Amino acid sequence: ILNVEQSPQSLHVQEGDSTNFTCSFPSSNFYALHWYRWETAKSPEALFVMTLNGDEKKKGRISATLNTKEGYSYLYIKGSQPEDSATYLCAFNSNYQLIWGAGTKLIIKP
Amino acid sequence: SQTIHQWPATLVQPVGSPLSLECTVEGTSNPNLYWYRQAAGRGLQLLFYSVGIGQISSEVPQNLSASRPQDRQFILSSKKLLLSDSGFYLCAWSVGQGSPYEQYFGPGTRLTVT
After folding, report:
1. B64-106 tens-digit pLDDT
2. What is the pLDDT of residue B95?
3. Which of A32, A98, A102 sits opposite B42 (nearest CB)?
4. Does B58 touch chain A if contact means CB atoms closer than 8 Å?
5. Which candidate from A32, A89, A100 shows the least CB-CB separation from B100?
6. pLDDT of residue B99
7. Among A5, A43, B82, B114, which has the highest number of CB atoms less than 10 A from its own CB?
């Protein structure tokens, strides 16, 4: 059974602070690793898709890294803002489907 | 551009009643289609996926079923709802060929079974 783990489950961060969280996934049969951002009462939105070991992607204050050999990815948020509050999901792309982690719920305290 | 519609947005149904949730995609052809559920406090669970008309794969045993009567229409049904069917249901689509791919989600349906 393929398993994707995300930690921590939830995170409270002071506005302006930087933070990061982890996604662990199987290191075999790897096609891609996806990060999604899911705000309350909205649909999940794609942030990044990474395919190569050592990939780094950046979008504004948010960036992600990928290590396929050891099976983990980090998501970093620099200078957290209230609008960053959301659940961040990672998904392991194996063949034709995505296997999802349970998410990290990020709450930014003003 | 592609859009995905899901309805209804919210639904309250008694135990034992039937269910029908509908999802349609516009602006693309032959998409892969998915039904997910998020139960309270948990991650996304894939319920069904479809790679073409009439082709449905089920990921977990349950009292739900799915159908794809048209290329861009995906329906989630139940004959008799259980309390455990409560949750947030999301429909998603992805391009039909190739990997990796992104999935694009509809607005979701919040189902409460009472």
Report:
1. 999 999 999 999 999 999 999 999 999 999 886 655 578 899 9
2. 84
3. A102
4. no
5. A32
6. 58
7. A43
Q: How far is CA A5 from the centre of its chain?
A: 11
For residue range B82-92, list pLDDT tens digits in order.
Answer: 999 999 999 99
Tokens for A103, please give them.
């998410």
Show the tokens assigned to B44: 């996304």
Which residues, 6 or more positions from B3, have their beta carbon under 8 angstroms from its beta carbon? B25, B26, B27
Work out the burial of residue B60: count CB atoms within 10 Å of its CB; fewer than 13 is exposed, 13-18 middle, 19 or more buried: exposed
For chain B, percent helix, then strand, then coil, each to nearest 5?
A: 5, 55, 40
Mention every residue, 6+ apart, whose C-beta is less than 8 A from residue A11: A19, A21, A104, A105, A106, A107
Lookup result for tokens 């999301």: B90
